[in-house]
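Chain and backbone:
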Amino acid sequence: MIERHLSLLLSVLVVIPLLSGCLSKIEEEQTVFRWGTTTSMRDSGLLEELINDFSSKHDVDIEYVAVGTGAALELGKNKDVDAIIVHAPDLEQEFLAQGYGSERLTFAWNRFILLSYDELEGSVYDAFYQIYSNQSCFISRGDFSGTHHKEQAIWQALNASHHVPIIEDENGIHPEGEWYNSIGQGMGATINMAFEKGCTTLSDRGTALNFVDTIDLMVYEFNDTILNNPYSFIPIDEKQNEWTDLFGSFLLTEGQDIIANYTIGNQSAFFPISQLTEELTR
């Protein structure tokens, strides 16, 4: 792997070289497939598994930049990439409605979880309300990623159900107080800060599983529907081509077995999309 910086963002660009060759005129014109992807796909290790399997079947160079969902959507809007992998459904629908994406293929899911120094009880709403009531230290990514977007949705729900006062500023939607810390960084840095300061943070499951053996924070999993975390592949409008079609098809066929069998510490990090459908119909 060769690391380099994209001009738009100072982020790590991973290039996977494959054997040269071409399968069609499109491949002759474009032998590089560029993505913007969420950090959780990269940091969990699942993305590399998917790329390795796909690249063993097709002759193409794959480049990707791993950023938060908000930044990935911006890459798509600017047409700096051919496709994006993101996990904020309402933002994705808006992205499509504005004509930036050609289609949305939801291919995997898991749930958001809480990592906390404190003992928490009840539903995720109960846990967040307990944090607010006790003014317990909370670390927010504050980077407008899919995880940060989900956290804001929970605070908004508590504002409606429990009259928790919230504000909206450059850090997004959140309660006020010195106990609330918005750091504007990725998931790994946020988890490390929660551990160092003895706080709570919301995390995607895939990234959290890579940290649980190295941090002294309790893991809280909930069944609340709001924590369902679907991941989608969106080809960028005007950039949809043979590679985006092939990879989208791969994710919904062979990729489903890879997703189902991928584990971290003997625990499933993601689930095939068919299982999310089953969850919602129970």
The radius of gyration is 19 Å. The longest strand covers residues 105-116. Residues 1-30 have pLDDT under 50 and may be disordered.
